[in-house]
Design brief:
About 40% of the residues lie in helices and about 20% in strands. The chain has about 230 residues and is of the alpha+beta class. It has an eight-stranded antiparallel β-sheet.
Length: about 230
Amino acid sequence: MPETVNPQESVFMKPLIFLLPAVLSLHAAAQNYVIADDRLSSGVLTLEGSSFSVSTVNPNGNVCDYEGIVRNRIASDGEGCVVHFSFKRDSVRLDIPESAREACQSYCGHNAFFDRVYYKMPTACAPKYAEAAERRFQAAYRDKRFREAANLKRQYLNQCGRFLYLTDWMRVLNDLAVSFKNAGDKAPCRKTLAPLSEWLRDYRPNYINETDYKREASAARFNLKQCEAE
């Protein structure tokens, strides 16, 4: 971490950690679709030919794991669980008829579910590309090329932000805000941190993300104070 950065500031020093990374890596040749626009859940749907598997984790850490074969856009386990698949260019929607909901719930923990929309993640957001982007950001930041660092982090956020878990998203916003602050651009620093206001005010972390949340929340409050100072 550069010596000019206060310890409370968050400058991301390691690649982003997506939930379920093992699933993504093990099925690199298959088509992977992930949950988007949900800061507290994660999930991946993997399609390989007519075979599929789906794994999700809900905000309380309860999981769903289900796999099978899709025929005519329908998958059935033969024991009552029936899933309908709707395919679009960049997404796949899974729907469960009400009559099959109880049977399908047997594959899930308490309050967990897998019938939702899954999106194709841009190549730039895949782990190896995210790692490369992070190295470029860190190099620019270490060299005090703060505007370049901000542009790199903003580009990553624009491409991949919707796929990030809450604490990873907070970390990226903190990194971007710090880059703006050190470039002397306090207005964009404040604007960057504005989406965190409701999470800092209303959200109560659980055992899964409490440590990471408290670290990023503390950094966000510190960074915001720095960016509000004259």
